[in-house]
Amino acid sequence: MFISGDRIPARHDPAPATDEHGRSAAYSGPHITLWSAGSDRDTWAICGDEGELIAFGPFGFDDPDHPRGEALRAENAAAIKAIRLAAHVRAVVNVPAANLHLLVSRTLDHARLTTIANSHQLTLNLIVTSDWNPATEWVNSGGYLQPAVDPVELLVDDSYPSAS
Q1: pTM of the entire structure?
Q2: pLDDT tens digit sequence for 55-114
Q3: Domain membership flag for residue 128
Q4: Number of domains composing the chain
């Protein structure tokens, strides 16, 4: 994942949020780039911007977004997990808002994902790409991986100044 104070090129520039809950800071805030994928085998994966694996595994049966064998629901649920990870990164970096560039392989429920991202003070730039999605290689691999180190340590560019 890439997090930086500099703007990164994107296919669709996110519009700046304008409400009074700190979201107006997202446009100039840090940029987080993640890939996500889900499978009809009820599995999910999240990778960083360079394809590095962040986490993958099966959906828990108590997960409210469990896809129950539906591929599109799995893709949306994986995207929600990526949004929640980005929200965790935003909170740890201690900034009021951030931009999430989320790369996926198919058209998802943009309105729902944007609402969820906004509730976490993230501006979502959902990018549907036909490029190779590294997360798709992990969704069918079986098993489960949560990094031994907090994902924030793996993902945050140490040069980005956190807000005090």
Answers
A1: 0.78
A2: 888 988 888 888 888 899 999 999 999 999 999 988 888 889 999 999 999 999 999 999
A3: yes
A4: 1
Determine the Cα–Cα distance for residues 153 and 112; give it in Å rounded to an integer. 29
Phi, psi of 96 (to 5 degrees): -70, -25
- Residue 160 covered by a domain: no
Domain that holds residue 38: 3-155
- The amino acid at 155: L
Distance CA 120, CA 11 (A): 23
Residue 161 domain-assigned?
A: no
With tokens 């691999």, the residue in question is: 141
Neighbouring C-alpha atoms within 13 Å toward the C-beta of 40: 3
CATH number of the CATH domain containing 71: 3.30.420
Mean pLDDT (whole number) for 106-129: 95
Written as one letter, the residue type at 118 is: N
Question: CA-CA distance, 30 to 155, in Å (whole number)?
Answer: 12
Q: Is residue 164 part of a domain?
A: no
Q: From the CB of residue 20, how many other CB atoms can be counted at a distance below 10 Å?
A: 6
Cα dihedral 15, 16, 18, 21, rounded to 10, equals 120
